[in-house]
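So, can you check?
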Amino acid sequence: MRAGGSLAGLALGAALACAPHPSGEPRPLRSYRLLIEGKDSLSDELARELGTRGFAVERHVVGGGPRVAALIWFTFRDPEDGRFFGLRVADTRTGAVVAAVSLPLDSLGAPPSAARRLGDSLAAHLAAP
């Protein structure tokens, strides 16, 4: 019985983490401050690139402020199409993914060009209906 309660609590927590914004509409990406905490060259270039595109960028967590979305990236392999770089932008309060970009890993290049390509992809995501 105890394990069932734990699973129910876990399921409830997951449901709340994935819940949409209370208004039912997703928040526009520009309404967030973007959190990029990494200290590597890609993090630095991506923070600079997004800042020049008008995004508010935070380099460390600050509590009690406006809405923040964390940038999370990873690589993955598609059996048919090869390796990809995935970028997710997630609301730090709800866990909801507010933007997602996936690009072929070999198309990114070094950090400065990779940051430009990712910035282009996020900007295109904003322009899409």
